[in-house]
Design goal:
Layout: H1 2-15, H2 20-43, H3 62-68, H4 78-92, H5 99-128, H6 132-143, H7 146-151, H8 157-177, H9 184-197, H10 202-206, H11 219-243, H12 249-262, H13 270-279, E1 288-294, E2 300-306, H14 312-331, H15 336-354, H16 372-383, H17 388-423
Helix pairs in contact: 2-5, 3-4, 4-5, 5-6, 5-8, 5-16, 6-16, 8-9, 8-15, 9-11, 14-16, 15-16
């Protein structure tokens, strides 16, 4: 019992603030995001409207996700997760899907995203060991991303994927730093929670296992790793099949249908979608377009989406950020924790950029990978901690980036509120 109690306390310390500065960081984002989400939930209907199933803003599927968890072939176990979310929100709103219901949904999202920011701060502080000022600037940078701003009030799979992925990256980094293996139950729970919300993300859970110390030098360690991976896969597959009453043929037909639907690349050049949507739209808001939508049942409404960048400055911003990211990767190439981060990012690059799944709306997928930016920037600062001149140069460049990011995203959010005032 004492061992279980110790593990539980360690988990709580991992999940929640465990020091004064961690508490301040968490409360800061909780208050800022909370105010934003509360204002939108109380004054507008866009977070949840019975008449609008999808695409009211930036291709998020709020209503369908809240009611069903999304399509089973992409989000196999999110049905159960959102049943809990929905019932808790209905408990708060006395069974009505009104402003109180929207308020509760927004605060669930707010808590999840604020905890995600906290996990990034903990990683920077505990794993990389950066000075406090750099840590604070990096989490402020991350907290100002378009993805984190939008997900802070949006009830979506990506919101909770962001939380589970940041939590797992922090946890697995602790294990790698201590040269310990990830226990079988922890790996299974991570695979079920992360893969259950978005099936392709389950592969990310197995990446740290490949970097455990001495894995390929000992048949015993390799066999144990294979057992842990196999156990996780079996648990996940059984739960997945149970979700669809073991009608496994539906998985292949629906998956192929979804791939054809979301890989139909629009007329926008691929390079522009890569920069404006996949690499850029998750961080730096681009131009907005308002379009006519309908719910297939006779109700017409307005939807807002992102367009490609119209100025050369955002392209320069994204190019500089990518240079810093890959600079960090090659500078820390021998660091196994950096390899875990980059391989995880590479999986999303393959899915969206190479296979072109959802590339024309890839700005909505940021919850799956956008956290790699502050982490890799943190490792870049770490690599030059003994070089004051290079550190000053990096800090100067980073301060320019964060200033432009905050200014751009603030102005774009005022445009978003114009949209809300006009139509919702």
């Amino acid at each position: 019992m004492s061992k279980f109690k110790t593990k539980f306390i360690h988990f709580l310390k991992l999940l929640f603030p465990s020091t004064g500065i961690e508490l301040l960081v968490f409360l800061f984002f909780l208050v800022v995001y909370g105010y934003l989400g509360s204002y939108i939930a109380i004054n507008y209907k866009i977070i949840f409207d019975d008449r609008i199933p999808w695409d009211a803003y930036f291709s998020f599927d709020n209503k369908s996700i809240v009611l069903s968890g999304g399509s089973f072939e992409r989000h196999p176990l999110s049905y159960y997760f959102f049943n809990w979310i929905r019932e808790l929100a209905l408990l708060f709103s006395n069974g009505k899907m009104d402003g109180n219901f929207r308020f509760a949904l927004a605060w669930f999202s707010n808590i999840a995203v604020s905890l995600s920011v906290l996990q990034i701060f903990k990683y920077l502080k505990n794993i990389i060991g950066l000075p406090l000022m750099i840590n604070l600037l990096l989490v402020l940078f991350f907290g100002s991303f378009s993805t984190t701003i939008l997900l802070s009030f949006t009830p979506e799979n990506f919101t909770y994927s962001l939380f589970f992925l940041t939590l797992f990256h922090h946890y697995s980094a602790i294990k790698l730093k201590k040269e310990e293996k990830i226990p079988v139950l922890a790996l299974a729970l991570s695979g079920i929670s992360i893969g259950g919300l978005t099936v392709t993300n389950i592969a990310k859970v197995f990446i740290p296992v490949a970097f455990e110390k001495g894995l390929f030098r000992s048949w015993k360690k390799l066999g144990n790793a294979i057992f842990r991976v196999a156990f996780t896969c079996i648990c996940f597959i059984l739960l997945y099949l149970n979700r669809i009453d073991f009608k496994y043929e539906n998985i292949f037909s629906k998956t192929n249908e979804q791939y054809e639907k979301f890989s139909n690349v629009r007329s926008t050049p691929t390079w522009d979608m890569l920069l404006s949507y996949f690499f850029g739209g998750n961080i730096l808001f681009s131009n907005f377009i308002v379009r006519d939508k309908h719910n297939m049942q006779g109700f017409d409404y307005k939807g807002i989406i992102m367009d490609v960048y119209s100025s050369w400055i955002p392209y320069i911003f994204i190019a500089v950020l990518l240079i810093l990211i890959f600079w960090s990767y090659f500078k820390n190439f021998k660091n196994k924790m950096v390899q875990v981060i980059m391989i995880s990012f590479l999986l999303d690059i393959i899915i969206h950029c190479i296979m072109k799944f959802g590339l024309h709306t890839s700005y909505i997928y940021g919850g799956h990978f956008v956290f790699v930016y502050p982490l890799l920037l943190g490792w870049l600062f770490y690599a030059y901690k003994e070089s004051p001149k290079m550190l000053s140069f990096l800090m100067a460049v980073f301060c320019i980036l964060i200033t432009y990011l905050a200014t751009n995203n603030y102005l774009r959010m005022t445009e978003f509120f114009w949209f809300l005032d006009t139509y919702y």
